[in-house]
Specification:
alpha+beta; five-stranded antiparallel sheet; three-stranded antiparallel sheet; Portal protein
């Protein structure tokens, strides 16, 4: 009998998984690591204030360039000159389009186990990280932000930097991920670089009192009496062991240990020159570290706006051109203005008065070569047209154009992969080093994509597998999916690549292993036996219980009838099939010689049993025992 599936309570799934993980944690020996030690002494408030000032001054040229980029992005920079003003939206659409392309497809996350026997544990780490990014995305969007990955890509395209703070939340409720993610505006973050990474980070920003109280509850006493919508200045300091916070110059949190053992920031840059300080330039190089995606077209963009504004001014002058009015000074009245509106009539003295239209701007046709050159610079320095769906040609030519266009986004894609890998590593390290129990997460069903089951990871599991992950963006460039699918089918049919490689490289599926499980499940659904014996009763039980009961009764009756047929049929010796009757109308046949000899042996045996009386055959054969049951064969006596 097949029963309909029962609904599962997803609220308690991770708690069951946490309990199982705790039992497993008790049975298996833990992996202990050496405790981390601070690398520097506790800084004083005066030292931190000095570091904040020096870091802010060090990146001042970068801040100026970011402010300039933001002005161009907002289309707030007005071209010089009089007349009509036209500001094209090229920086805005470039940033929005690039961030949408980079965040359109979710990245694949692969954990790298140190041993082959830990593959299942590595899969658990991967599932946990995917679930963690979903939770972080949900928290980020609840604060009136866009999608998390899209905003990270937006900062990378506009600011040229990505700055993310990772923190451990010891007060996280059961079932919640105890790691918080804070994506910050790079304009407000000032890192101090070292030879092997970050030495410390200064975060100087402005926020409302309500936001400060939500993130830092200890600031309630210092900010008592202030309105929650009041904007205040916040200065925070982070190194590998210490943390400091002040609001409007008031110390809220003195230098306090966070005990992470690393600077809890992920800072990365995308485009820009890799130059550093030289003998001739020891300060201006900071301006070129991490530039915007439209940094290379700024000059062409400004000149293009100026030229388009001049052409727009000329078009406006055609509708209302400047004129020179030659009038007769002998007229007693003042000269009347000329009306240039449609259907207007003007009266002038013949041979004494006339009107001439002034041509103070060049012919628009003369500006075409300059316009074309500027547009060519903008396209080559920005996003090519093929990324906007306006590529010319088809097939191989279009593929070449797409690959060339993706050269612009390649460094940004690589930076996003590195950022996600670092965030994954920091989150796993915080759970491994600071958390004292399992962390629950939900797993999606391979068929429906819904959260259906709860699992849990433990600090010991993370210590055994490690914190290293590999992140890849597979489907960033627009591709012909039909052509890629045909190529993948051809290569797999010729046994040149595996199905997993085809799904990964050609089809861009996020998790090829899970997709293989879905394919196997589809094969089970398509099997006629499974459909008849499993899916049909399951569907009837969910949709029509009465019809399901009728089907079940018919199934039972059919089984009983088959069982009766099996029990009533005589069992043949040795499993031999029953003898087949002669076809109707066929005469009886003479026994073949082999069977005739056998019948003679039976008669000899019967004669031996009965002593030979009434039989013409000899009384038995000396030395031959009678066949078993020979005396019971009718017709032989």
């Amino acid at each position: 009998m097949v029963f309909p599936p029962q609904e599962e309570n997803t609220q308690g799934l991770w708690r069951i998984a946490e309990g199982m993980a705790e039992v497993q944690d008790l049975l298996e020996p833990g992996v202990t690591a050496a405790p981390k030690q601070p690398k520097r002494r506790r800084p004083s408030r005066e030292q931190i204030a000095n570091l904040v000032q020096r870091a802010t001054e060090f990146w001042s040229l970068r801040d100026r360039r970011m402010d300039e980029d933001l002005s161009l992005y907002r289309m707030a920079e007005i071209p010089e000159g009089e007349g009509e003003v036209v500001i094209r939206n090229i920086p805005w659409v470039m940033v929005e389009k690039a961030s949408s392309i980079l965040s359109k497809q979710p990245p694949s996350i692969d954990a790298v186990p140190p041993e082959n026997r830990l593959k299942e544990a590595a899969q658990a780490i991967e599932d946990f990280l995917r679930y963690a990014w979903e939770i972080w995305d949900r928290r980020w969007m609840q604060a009136l932000h866009g999608p998390l990955l899209r905003d990270i890509a937006h900062f990378l395209c506009l600011r040229g930097w990505v700055t993310i703070r990772v923190s451990y939340n010891a007060d996280a409720p059961p079932g919640e991920i105890p790691v918080d993610l804070h994506v910050c505006d790079p304009r407000q973050v000032y890192p101090q670089l070292g030879s092997s990474g970050l030495r410390y980070v200064v975060h100087r920003y402005w926020a409302t009192v309500g936001e400060i109280l939500d993130e830092w509850p200890e600031a309630e006493k210092r900010l008592s009496g202030r309105d929650e919508d009041e904007v205040v200045e916040v200065v925070a300091y982070y190194d590998d062991w210490w943390h400091y916070l002040e609001v409007d110059g008031i110390e809220v949190k003195p230098p306090t240990e966070h005990g992470y053992g690393f600077v809890p920031w992920v800072v990365a840059t995308g485009l820009g020159a890799p130059v550093r300080a030289t003998q001739r330039d020891q300060t201006h190089w900071t301006q070129e570290v991490g530039v915007s995606i439209f940094h290379g077209i700024k000059r062409a963009y400004r000149q293009l706006n100026r030229l388009v504004s001049q052409l727009a001014t000329e078009v406006a002058r055609v509708a209302n051109p400047p004129t020179v009015y030659y009038y007769d000074p002998a007229r007693p009245d003042n000269p009347q203005p000329i009306r240039l509106s449609a259907g207007a009539t003007n009266f002038l003295y013949f041979d004494r008065e006339r009107v001439e239209v002034l041509q103070v701007t060049p012919n628009p046709a003369n500006a075409a070569p300059v316009m074309q050159a500027l547009l060519d610079d903008v396209e080559k320095g920005g996003l090519p047209g093929v990324l906007w769906g306006v590529g010319q040609g088809s097939g191989f030519a279009l593929t070449l154009q797409t690959d060339a266009a993706m050269d612009t986004l390649h460094p940004l894609t690589r930076v996003l992969e590195q950022v996600i890998e670092q965030v994954n590593q920091r989150a796993l390290e915080l759970i491994r080093d600071l958390h004292d129990g399992p962390v629950g997460y939900l797993v999606r069903d391979p068929l429906t994509g819904r959260m259906v089951s709860g699992q849990a990871i433990t600090p010991d599991l993370i210590a055994a597998v490690g914190t290293r992950t590999v992140v890849r963006f597979r489907k960033v460039a627009p591709r012909d999916r039909v052509q890629m699918a045909q190529l993948a089918a051809l290569l797999t049919d010729k046994k040149l690549i595996s199905l997993e490689t085809a799904r990964d490289e050609f089809l861009g599926i996020e998790n090829p292993q899970r997709e293989n499980e879905r394919v196997l499940a589809d094969l089970a659904y398509l099997d006629p036996e499974v459909t008849r014996e499993v899916l049909v009763p399951w569907a009837l039980a969910r949709t029509d219980p009465v019809l399901y009961e009728l089907w079940r009764q018919a199934k039972l009756r059919k089984g009983q009838q088959e069982e009766q047929k099996r029990t009533s049929a005589p069992e043949r010796p040795g499993g031999a099939p029953p003898p087949q009757a002669a076809p109707p109308g066929m005469p009886p046949q003479v026994l073949p010689p082999q069977l005739a000899t056998l019948m003679s042996l039976l008669q000899h045996s019967q004669a031996s049993v009965s002593g030979g009386q009434g039989e013409e055959a000899p009384p038995g054969v000396p030395g031959v025992e009678p066949l078993p049951g020979a005396g019971e064969i009718p017709g032989l006596v």
